[in-house]
């Protein structure tokens, strides 16, 4: 049985112009120790699907699914207090803008200890020690001094490390990373990706990488889901996806990579669309 | 040989943080002795990580910030910025910023965004300005009905098209593009890069293209300049830099760029299953 199993997930937003389906009948399953990448451009519903799992969507969203199980427990039917015990502890998430996702009013020490406090019941010195240990794990060596720093005193890459430290604080079984490196430089991106993959490997987590960057997919994923306008276009293991893409949209994404440029022009997604603006599989 | 569009000699910029009674003033050398020349119709890419001084360089050559020392020569004339920059010179230099959400006034309709440079810098009649703005709007791949819309009604890629159109309204000598595609999705990025190439071919534009993404640079640049901690560590033609990087930092950059070819994915999977 898969660790996270989602069948026929639909997320609709109630807008002034009527109901808008951001995610339209998507199946996702992840096993323990697996790196799954969900790829798509903005508006493809890749983040929304995972936010629905975390229960982080606003009240205007309607989430329905035939199955949404984490380790056999139904996340949709579960009462809120039970869900809170899972979210943030067993399933953790990191976001795109590291500086914006930390609270600017509190030190990073306070924010890491808050997680430990809430989910592990660690307080005082025990929490402090664990926080230093966590910072060490994500590559911040002077953790003891860094605990007193505020987010604005750290660089974007370091803030993302702190976010990762908070996410892995409770030994999650599943880590969801939503565009974790989009706001970062290539050299820092490489460090963060290496860190995520090594943590995933060392602690046997499952990792879901949400990204629009085929480069990130090639460097990290075992299996890939390609999403377009709320629909799943393709699901394949990473090698067959790059070697032999099945859907037109995947081919479009791959050929939009500047290093794959043939001649003087980059093909865009529009070149692969059908005449009615749809996308054939 | 024709006069280069832009020539920069020993450009330097220091930032001095004000000291206090118990703290000495600190000097940060953001850009150290940068020199280059740029010919008409060419693209120079400036590459480096955040904090390496590439945006400071951009602000100096667009005459937004003044250099601490060194010379900037635009179309053969040295810029004397100490007594203010003349309007004629300002017209020759335009910039497109990274974040298309932050660089457009939310209360200004697109038509007037595009016509404003003409209003400020020329004596054209309103009808002429309107015509020119409309022509440019179509040129960057937008439609006539977009003329009276507000920035929030556009996607990120469309806004970047608007920012490019605005920068081109005055026929500048060169255009500085400060990370123009790094906030955009891959497929939208491809559209904007195509647009830039088309515009360059059509108008013979000269670009200074600032980026940290080597795959984009490889696609668009004629010349590449790599910066590291305010210094130029490598400068050469695109092929020379990409095929035979000389400096360690350039090699680090190449090693950090994600690889999407089949053989490197196979190698990664093999390493993983072996571990």
TrEMBL record, chain A:
InterPro entries: AAA+_ATPase (IPR003593), ABC_Ni/Peptide_Import (IPR050388), ABC_transporter-like_ATP-bd (IPR003439), ABC_transporter-like_CS (IPR017871), P-loop_NTPase (IPR027417)
Membrane topology: Peripheral membrane protein
Location relative to the cell: Cell inner membrane
Domain of life, source organism: Bacteria
Location of the ABC transporter domain: 4-254
UniProtKB keywords: ATP-binding, Cell membrane, Membrane, Nucleotide-binding, Transport
Listed Pfam families: ABC_tran
Main subcellular location: membrane
Entry's Gene Ontology molecular function annotations: ATP binding
Protein family membership: Belongs to the ABC transporter superfamily.
Entry-linked PANTHER family: DIPEPTIDE TRANSPORT ATP-BINDING PROTEIN DPPD, OLIGOPEPTIDE TRANSPORT ATP-BINDING PROTEIN APPD
Stated name of the protein: ABC transporter ATP-binding protein
Automatic annotation (TrEMBL), chain B:
Record-annotated ABC transporter domain positions: 6-254
PROSITE patterns hit by this protein: ABC_TRANSPORTER_1, ABC_TRANSPORTER_2
One Pfam family cited in the UniProt record for this chain: ABC_tran
Recorded superkingdom: Bacteria
CDD domains: ABC_NikE_OppD_transporters (cd03257)
Coiled-coil regions listed in the entry: none
GO molecular function: ATP binding
Stored SUPFAM superfamilies: P-loop containing nucleoside triphosphate hydrolases (SSF52540)
Signal peptide bounds: none
Keywords on record: ATP-binding, Nucleotide-binding, Transport
Keyword ATP-binding tagged: yes
Family of this protein: Belongs to the ABC transporter superfamily.
Protein name: Dipeptide ABC transporter ATP-binding protein
Native organism: Devosia algicola
